[in-house]
Design goal:
Nuclear Transport Factor 2, Chain: A; 2 helices
């Protein structure tokens, strides 16, 4: 069981599946970070999730996030995932890379 599955189960995600790379949204650049929306398909809905990346001290760092928010359509989940990524960046900045989970 991978970290994403464990985190999903901790937050009530159950057996959801992250969208395959081909279904991940287009990366969005925001304040020196890259946000990649990767909603998790659960039944007929999509859970807000994604990846935040940034180069720090010559090393590419990344962190995944999963939220409890669900959307009925994939595009809505993509948009919401980007907004949540922006919110995480605003609230935590580079501190998010100091721990394993956001």
């Amino acid at each position: 069981m991978g970290l994403g599955e464990i985190v999903g189960k901790l937050f009530g995600g159950g057996g959801g599946e992250k969208a395959p790379a081909s279904e991940a949204g287009e990366p969005v650049e925001h304040e020196g970070y890259t946000i990649v929306p990767e909603p998790i398909r659960e039944g007929g809905q999509y859970r807000t999730a994604g990846l935040i990346r940034r180069e720090l001290d010559g090393e590419m760092r990344q962190v995944r996030f999963i939220r409890a928010d669900n959307n009925a359509d994939r595009q809505g989940a993509m948009d919401h995932s980007v907004r949540k990524g922006m919110q995480i960046i605003a609230e935590q900045g580079t501190r998010m890379f100091e721990r394993e989970n956001v």
